[in-house]
Amino acid sequence: MGTPRLTSKLDGFGTTIFAEMSALAVATGSINLGQGMPDTDGPAEVLDAAVEAIRAGHNQYPPGPGIPALRAAVAEHQQRFYGLAWDPDTDVLVTCGATEAIAAALLALLDTGDEAIVFEPYYDSYGACISMAGAQRRTVLLRAPDFSFDPDELRAAVTDRTRVILLNTPHNPTGKVFTRDEVATVADVAAEHDLVVISDEVYEHLTFDAVPHVPFASLPGMAERTVSIGSGGKCFSVTGWKVGWVTGPSELVTAVRTAKQFLTYVSSGPFQHAVAAGLRLPDAYFAESAADMQAKRDRLVPGLVDAGFEVYPTSGTYFVVADITPFGEQDGMAFCRSLPDRCGVVAVPCSVFYDDADAGRALVRFGFCKQHHVLDEAADRLRALGGAGR
Ligand code: PMP
Ligand code: GLN
Fold first, then answer.
1. What whole-number distance in Å separates Cα of residue 168 and Cα of residue 106?
2. Does ligand 2 come within 6 angstroms of the Cβ of 35?
3. Residues 96, 282, 74, 269, Cα dihedral to 10°
4. Is 268's C-beta closer than 6 angstroms to any atom of ligand 1?
5. For residue 390, is pLDDT > 60?
6. d(CA 340, ligand 2 centre) in Å
7. Rounded to the nearest 5°, which phi and psi values hold at 324?
8. How does pLDDT run across 115-127, given as a tens digit for each residue?
9. pLDDT category, 388, cuts 50, 70, 90?
10. How many Å lie between the centroid of ligand 1 and the Cα of residue 231?
11. Ligand 2, closest atom to CA 36?
């Protein structure tokens, strides 16, 4: 064996669970409720706008910060839905999906040896990007069944090396939508310790049961210390387009742009035009997309319960978390690796989203961003597993 080639910063990150499980779905012909990707296209207006943009010749590098029409549309969107006033020229940055926004924000704001606080379970790229920045993460546990956190644990996680709190609401993988009180606690801690909050709000329009999304930057005093992140892929069911954005005060957005320009520089030229059109769709579009996703949740969840899972409530996103203990099993990773062979369904083990191995071991995540007949078929197959009480 020669010298290991992979930097220690990426040691242990291996292949993402989404790549592993989507490949398994293809190899076994299973229904893929693992990686969160809708199986229907976004609104026709948005698809047509992409085709028109290609035909109109918008096929070369767009400007570094994003095309002016999209930056204006993002600023208008933040004003329309949240009353936040951002200058499209200085306070908005277009990125290669929210994924790049997260990476650029962490690389821009964390120095070697700094610490970032994340709530766990956490989206997998957070850990890798904090590490690539040479920083460390400190986790604060979200506890089932409602995935709330203990404010004292958040306070205790702050050290003199803490620079950033990374928040994700609505939350992947749990579907938790942080309450106003909870985000206010985060705001208090951020203000007390002069921290920047990176707020990943890619599922901002996907909340259910009239539960409101509370944008972190809308809290008193927080706009000046928040980097907010959005995703066109999530807003318009076009996850392959990879158009994301960052909003915040110019000082923070400039910092993120400095890192971003050396990652992809620019991306998704014609799709930026289409996402600009999408962000200008009437309120009804956004309400209908949430109602549609809620109906999908309501289609899958009873099937999971009936199959024998203990299912935790989800108020947003594409996802629901279920406990496999009723099946007499504890190891979610082994369960998910065997599920395709056992019944032709793919799910994602939540252990990959946890540092606290015990907390997430028996939890698995199902994505319900699929057509009803697909969800019905998946539920039928899962019932055949013969879970508890069946
Ligand atoms: N953040 C969260 C919480 C996500 O679930 C995802 C999944 N796509 C992303 C960021 C990345 O978004 P994008 O596809 O726009 O890069
Ligand atoms: N955000 C989606 C998920 O959590 C997709 C992840 C990815 O493709 N990296 O499933």
1. 14
2. yes
3. 40
4. no
5. no
6. 19
7. -95, 0
8. 999 999 999 999 9
9. low
10. 7
11. 10
